[in-house]
Fold these 4 entries.
Entry 1:
Amino acid sequence: MICPCSGLPPGTDFDRCCRPALDGATWPTTAEALMRSRYTAFARGDENHLFRTWHPKTRPADLGVDDRTEWLRLEIIGTTDGGEDDATGTVHFRARFRDHLGDHALEENSSFVRRAGRWMYLEALND
């Protein structure tokens, strides 16, 4: 099964892509890899991974996982910094999903920071 995030590199199966991060066996080494693992966590309803990877300063009490939402596709539009040696980074993405109201697209520029050497989601930078 191809990873819900479409795989990194494209077409990689779930077991070799996001599963190790969701299982807590590894931590994503780039902001993009963390973004992909978070998308996969939403797709699989994994609130534990979302909690672990959301910066405590901006983490909401309700993580927003709705098991009635079907996540359809993730598209990475671009990244700024966020590499293995960076302290900050952004990931511009579009996530397509379906809920009881129909099909939708969520587009966001996400900000990521390193905390204790690990990438964390900080916040959306949309206007």
Note: The first strand starts at residue 70 and ends at 81.
Entry 2:
Amino acid sequence: MNPPKGPLGIIAGGGGLPLRVAEAVATSGRPVVVAVLEGQGDASAFTAYPSQSFRWGLAAQLLAWLKGHGVRQLVLAGSVSRPSVLSLRPDAAGMKLLARIGRAAYTGDDSVLRAVMGVLAEDGFEVISAQQVLAGLLPPAALLAGAPPDDLARADIQRGIAVCRALGLADVGQCCVVQQGLVLAVEAIEGTDAMLARCGPLHREGPGGVLVKCVKPGQSRLADLPTIGPRTVDGAVAAGLRGLAFEANGTIVMDRDATIARATAAGMFLLAFDPADFKEGTTA
């Protein structure tokens, strides 16, 4: 297979993933062009590359700018907080783009991503995943830190997987916190960090809870996969949790060494799980 020609475009949201992708691609010798979503990504992080910030309502201008730089292959990377429709303030071209996305703009994140990627494909772009650029982002099933979860923690993980599946089917969120069988919190538009911040006052006496993250059923693997990193561990510690469990081969682990080190130092388990190992009736 011939290597891709032309620059790789990155539509950058928040967090460290977009910059890691840019650095990896640039190191390989391929040019990088970065369109930063205003209010989401940090434009100052991409001064080494052709880059420009765009607000949501100027999405059509964003795509035209990428095309003007010869971009035909794109990575959608980083966290994004969806704005309200009224705050978009689209220009005329943006209105046409919004019309092409259609009703998905009023539904869940995965529905919107699928609609956006359909529009990108129609416009001649190919969307690839961050994990196609960065090896090792998605750990296989393994215990990465701490002692193996005991029976109570395994029961909480099993419960959390069921809750995450229900959330995912409704295209709402990708994670929850379960303690002793009780669902303390579920993720919605606020994101994982804010969800964890809500959990502290809800903590029960006895063994701490578990953060569980899963890929939504049928979710595209090209963008918006569940993600954890050192901040996630810090938030879990502050919430009094005793472990993080996330779907193997489907969850991005940012700064893996630092994430594992923080979990180890906190005495927490860090488990990349195969959902098949937590089906009803399975044992450790």
Note: The chain has two domains: 8-133, 142-278.
Entry 3:
Amino acid sequence: MTTATPAGHPPADLRNPAQLLAALPYVIGFRPARSVVLIGHQGPAGQEPGLILRGDLPRREHRAYQAQALAARFATGLHTGVTLAIVGGRRRPGSAPPHAGFVDVLTKELAVLGVPVRHALWAAKIQEGARWRCYARTDCGGELPDPRTTVAAAAATERGTVAFDSRDELEALLSPRSPEALARRSAVLSRLPCPPCPDLNEAASAIRAEFERHRRGEGPPTDEEAVTAAGALTLPEIRDVCLAMAVPPETSAAREAERVWLTLVRELPAPERAEPAVLLGFTAYMRGDGAFAGMALENALAANPDHVLARLLKTVLDRGTPPQVIRGLAAAADPVATLGLEPADFDTGQAL
């Protein structure tokens, strides 16, 4: 299983191995365990983080396949080097860090693409006081600082985001609140036109109602509200306006929209769940949270494998495309013409 994080994520110091390792939970969104993390180097001096990939540590017989799959993501020529970080395993006193064989295979695969490995690091776990070592030098190592003291942690705190203790914990946010409710709504939706398409004014009112319900703290939607919202999100005009709410990122408007989409992901069955999952993935992508964006987009594709926008976003995310490159997907929307309201109005508490 692989997680990609595009450029635009929390800052990480590529020149300080201990700080870089400690920052990983804030860079990828969760605390990695039994993982390989590849941090791309960009910029004239090679000190700017580029694409960041996290993969599971492979079994010995799967090393070559995993190395080829990970290295191929750096074949675009945008990176001047890569730092490898291995998390997990026990190091015997006086011996090399564990998984050295996999590091060698991965280094060779990257070299074929003309991407040198700048540093190869190992840490037993990502927590204060954990031991870390370099693979190439015996005099390089020590103990990790508190991850909460890193620059990446400070940047995440300023944005109001947190690092989860595991990938599973982050992914659990997308789990259905009530399988029974999903079954009821699926039965209703299956009896309606596919999909139930209201007119534009009705659709706008349905989405506006979802935001108002969240602001009042009324809890999950009723079956009728969920079905109505599902129909509203099928209209391209509504989807485009919803995409526009993701920019500029890190605003209260974008955060509020992300909460609404997350709720609908948990409250709608497949295939209708794909629509809010795509909006959730795009919003997370715009704020640089590649891990959560990828999970949301995978959720969308699981609900509807043929969803064109979900597949497009997943492809550009996997390539490490910076958020600003695809920001035009949101900028192309015209909220004034569609709803008569500017996206900025959401910051002032006005209705959608």
Note: The two ends are 38 Å apart (CA to CA).
Entry 4:
Amino acid sequence: MDRTALADFLRHRREALKPSDVGLPDGARRRTSGLRREEVAALAGMSTDYYARIEQQRGPQPSDQMLTAITRALRLSLDERDHLFRLAGHNPPRRLRRSDHVSPPLLRVLDRLDDSPAMVLSDLGVTLAQNRLAIALLGDHSRFTGLAASDYYRWFTDPSERARYPVEDRERQGIIRAAGLRAALSMGGPDARAERMVAALTAESPAFVDAWERHEVATRFDDHKTIIHPELGSIELDCQALFTEDQSQTLIVLTAKPGTAGYDKLQLLGVVGSQEFSEHQ
């Protein structure tokens, strides 16, 4: 525990905040820049004396629970939170926090994408949200439940999922998915859903076992890929990925270069939508 550095860090972060940043009134007269110690203590749910002693380099070593409360009160970023834990002599918590609730920033971006297929995926490959073009291109993923909600699981157990990619690319796509699942386990730690998926795939898919035993670990999405649509045929697309800070969710956007056949097919998909093709999805 580095008492001096911890005290300095807390004081500087406290002084950098305005009351309005944490939902408090600014008030007409404030002698203290930023928040007062008693305000931070109240936001963190601890006594003012306890918090003050930490800033004065004379308090006990804060527990993980206290550090988490201070993180919340001071609105620290993940990097700042990790730094706080290390200064206090603790290992930082794992960054990844799985949730089926779509990240609000990613959802705001998704809502503004009406000319390109886009979707939000969890680290376990579950589609959390799709726009209309993504549904028209790839089908409505909301119909899947249980382990089948994960693209990782469907890839190795559902032939129709693999049929969306050229035959020559399917082995590589399987390796990419196995590497992504291993990365999710590495970042997220023990997780019943992830472990159940690995166990099920190990029992059901020799192709998964082959890919899993390569021990590749990577969270990646192709820069360029070919999707086979049941009506429009092959569509060459570029793929961009935007991650949340803890990498628990990813916004995937598929685009095509103007003037290409892929671009024209996306334009057609945008006009027709999923109605004409729904019976084939």
Note: The radius of gyration is 24 Å.
